[in-house]
Amino acid sequence: MEFSIKSGSPEKQRTGCLVIGVYEGRKLSPAARDVDNACRSALSDVLRRGDLEGKVGTTLLLHNVSPLPADRVLLVGLGKERDFNESAYRAALNAAMKAIRSTGTIEACICLTDLPVKKRDTSWKIEQAAIAVMDGAYRFDRMKSKAPEAKRVLRKVMLHVGKRNEIGEGEAAANRATAIAEGVALAKDLGNLPPNVCTPTFLGEQAAQLGKEHGLKVEVLEQKEIEKLGMGSFLAVAKGSKQPPRFIVMEYRGGKGDEPPVALVGKGITFDTGGISIKPSAEMDEMKFDMCGAASVFGTMKAVALMKLPMNVVGVVPATENMPGGNAVKPGDIVTTMSGQTVEILNTDAEGRLILCDALTYVERYKPQAVIDIATLTGAMVIALGHVATGVFSNTDSLANEVLRAGDVAWDRAWHLPMWDDYQEQLKSNFADFPNIGSRAGGSITAACFLSRFTKAYPWAHLDIAGTAWKSGAEKGATGRPVPLLVHFLERRAHA
Ligand code: BES
Ligand code: MN
Ligand code: ZN
User: Fold this and answer.
1) Percent share of the chain, pLDDT over 90
2) What pTM did the predictor assign?
3) Of 220, 324, 420, 440, which sees the most CB atoms within 10 A?
């Protein structure tokens, strides 16, 4: 996508689609007023007839509004002016993109970025708009047998700002957004691929390719090497599958040689049947998204490389399927993790923590300044926070706050949950050091408590993205979250 930032008269824009906002009560935004004046109140006339009230997320497409040089004018509802906040702004942008996509225009000029949004500056507004545009233009059709109709696609987008002196920061924000959106698109692609294509082996190949394209040092460890490392817990999950596991390590070195890296660890279950503790069949296809944590690590590594952040980042992905089978791990089995601690596997469907724990021990060798793991870890997370916020758990409050702040500026929001000792008490085993599950109560928290037993050596945060990594229903698909949060976290660290 090609973005340009401009100030000045929207009514003079020669473009395929001129996008302007209307608040509830049919109140024109300032840019819309300029356009309305230039077309002898054609817009106010349409609004007076009642075709658009201004409710947020509604749109109305007009053609040949003379004498404007634009081919189309898209009116976008903004909701109540005094309630125009971040959510309304994003909703308006998303609605605009949906309408733009239904036309064949290759160019658009969006005059929503000039609207005041409470507490947010031009840089934030432009970044959000550029991400919304690229998100809205995203397509996943590589598995369709026929190439989609050769419809013309949006290529050039002009984002309007109120003043000339905002252009510089707008351009910087659009560049940052492009890198983030490329990372998001990669994470979505990997998440959306079917589980017979996106196998652990495939993820290993993708890592190698990412490394080649962006100068990352990539290592893909196979069964034998994983055994040598003593990852008994990770290998226990992999046992039930015919697909061999992979342990993927990607290093981005943009900082000084001796500077401790941030380590990102992503859950890479390429399909989660539950194993012997098998899942019910309804919507089981969605368990192909159980590698979205891994996908977000790939996407973030790509964005960081595109942005050339001056810091060191290591991305680590344990990748395997979780399958039932004659050789699968069983409830009651006890395994020895790489840390030496033993775990009684009471439920083979709590497999994410079993592969992450060994990866979390592995990253100790980097003496990382911080470790963040990202995982579609628990169904309980979806119950607790729904599809809006990612759950954050941490052994270091200041790190949790840093993650929350990054989520807020990225508008990829997260929420801090407790990990008090009281919850740790649920993890007791009569036979091993501890079991892999607690009771049903507080399931996301006890999962985090399990991981905390492997992260004593460094500041650590755990992101449970079970509710935010993908959408079900008509818009089923990966979201690319939390790549925006992670990129902002890293950017702030890089410049700290
Ligand atoms: N990948 C799932 C978590 C999940 C479930 C995400 C549903 C999104 C929707 C994870 O491996 C899992 O199965 N967790 C179990 C843990 C339980 C057995 C303690 C769960 O949440 O039911
Ligand atoms: Mn599971
Ligand atoms: Zn899982």
Assistant:
1) 98
2) 0.98
3) 220
Please name which of 161, 165, 171, 175 lies closest in space to residue 6, comparing C-alpha atoms.
161
Q: Say which ligand is closest to the CA of 274.
A: 2
Distance, CA of 96 to CA of 60 (rounded, Å): 9
How far is residue 273's CA from residue 86's CA, in Å, rounded to a whole number?
A: 38
Exposure string for 4-31, b = 16+ CB within 10 A, e = fewer: ebbeeebbebebbbbbbbbbbebebbeb
Distance 458 CA to ligand 3 centre (A): 25
Question: Cα(218)–Cα(209) distance, rounded to whole angstroms?
Answer: 9
Q: Which of 469, 444, 437, 143 minimizes the C-alpha distance to 290?
A: 469
Is residue 82 part of the annotated active site? The answer reads no
Measured CA distances, 21 to 27, 63, 64, 126, 137 (Å): 9, 16, 18, 16, 20
CA angle 215, 216, 221 (to 5 degrees): 140
| The residue type at 390 | T
Q: Is-catalytic flag, 353?
A: yes
- Average pLDDT, stretch 23-46? 97
Beta bridge partner(s), residue 415? 391
- Candidates 313, 311, 312, 349; CA nearest to 329 is 349
pLDDT tens sequence across 433-449: 999 999 999 999 999 99
Does residue 378's CB lie within 6 angstroms of at least one atom of ligand 1?
A: yes
Look up residue 443 and give its two tokens. 């399931």
Query: For the chain, how long is the longest CA-to-CA vector?
Result: 81
27 CA to centre of ligand 3 in angstroms: 48
Active-site choice (279, 330, 471, 493): 279
**Whether residue 67 has a cis bond before it, omega within 30° of 0:** yes
Please indicate whether residue 466, judged by its CB atom, sits closer than 6 Å to ligand 1: yes
Q: Is 426 touching ligand 1 by the criterion CB < 6 Å?
A: no
Distances (CA, A) of 38 to 8, 44, 263: 14, 12, 55
